[in-house]
Amino acid sequence: MDHKNLSYYKAFYNTPTLWTGELDGLKQFVFPEIYFENLDMGSIPSKLRLGHKIEHIFLKLIQHSRQYKVIAHNIPIRKEKVSLGEIDFLLQDVDSHQFSHVELTYKFYVISEESTNIELQFIGPNQRDSFKAKKERIINHQIPLLKTPEATSVLQRFNIKPSELLHQVCFKSQLFVPFMVHNMDLSPFNSNCISGRWIPFHTFKSPEFFEYRYYLPSKQEWLLDPQQGVNWLGHKDVLDLITVGLENKNAPLLWMKSSDYTVEKLFVVWW
User: Fold this and answer.
1) Cα dist. 96→30, 163, 226 in Å?
2) Which of 121, 164, 168 is CA-nearest to residue 143?
3) Are 41 and 62 contacting, i.e. CB atoms less than 8 angstroms apart?
4) Which residues, 6 or more positions from 18, have their beta carbon under 8 angstroms from its beta carbon?
5) pTM score above 0.85
């Protein structure tokens, strides 16, 4: 496998889960150990959107693990011709033969300080999604979907009874703290998910950010750790690249390099 593809697999695998154990009845899937040495899973289709790329990576990693067998994935559930939803992954433990339903989620959240409830602080950089909304959808829609007659009929094709399924989530996340905040108590969430910082656009335009160098990664590259060997831009040049998007309420993720060559991730938000 070429280095670029391998970096995506490793970036996904090494992203921490947003919590460990169980949260509000949602049990985290414990990823099996993956040995990347001499691992060849082929190239990742270049035209996949980030969400589909993450699904592809999860699938390939599980297929190359020794612990699980993939029974099916992305299974549509329909009532007549109306879509009720989709089952992300059905897995079976090779040793125990336990069947698992795994909902895969990978989110980028900025941490807002507008609420004292930590769950309400995790929001998408464009304010179009939130952790609370996603959690409630999994609890109130995705898991109950598996108990409907339509899903039961689909499961029967794989000789699985709904009562035999262990429901789990693989909920990985990159979190971004406010720029001037250095310590945040995220309990009961995993502080290892903190991947960078965020600032409002009007703050980014201030002189204190002129001295840094910047790289504007593609949406595909959001998954990756910042790297040194990219085409770094000055503040004015990157400002020209991101202004229109911000005016259209699309927050960019930047890699920001300081004079001491320290590189970090930075979301610039429009709100």
Assistant:
1) 15, 16, 40
2) 168
3) no
4) 107, 131, 171, 172, 173, 189, 190, 193
5) yes
Tokens encoding 90: 């059905």
In the structure, what pLDDT confidence band is assigned to residue 99 with cuts at 50, 70 and 90?
very high
Tell whether the model's pLDDT for residue 221 goes beyond 80.
Answer: yes
Are both 103 and 207 inside the same structural domain?
Answer: no
How does residue 116 score in pLDDT terms, banded at 50, 70 and 90?
confident
- Judgement on whether residues 169 and 53 belong to the same structural domain of the protein: yes
CA quadruple 184, 187, 190, 195: dihedral, nearest 10: -20
Token pair 């090494």 is at which residue?
Answer: 14
| Domain hosting residue 216, numbered range | 180-269
**pLDDT tens digit string along 129-180?**
999 999 999 999 999 999 999 999 999 999 999 999 999 999 999 999 999 9
One-letter amino acid for residue 174 of the chain: Q
Tokens describing residue 44: 């990742």
Q: CA 108 from chain center: how many Å?
A: 6
32 and 159 within one domain: yes
Half-sphere exposure of 163 (CA within 13 A, CB side): 0
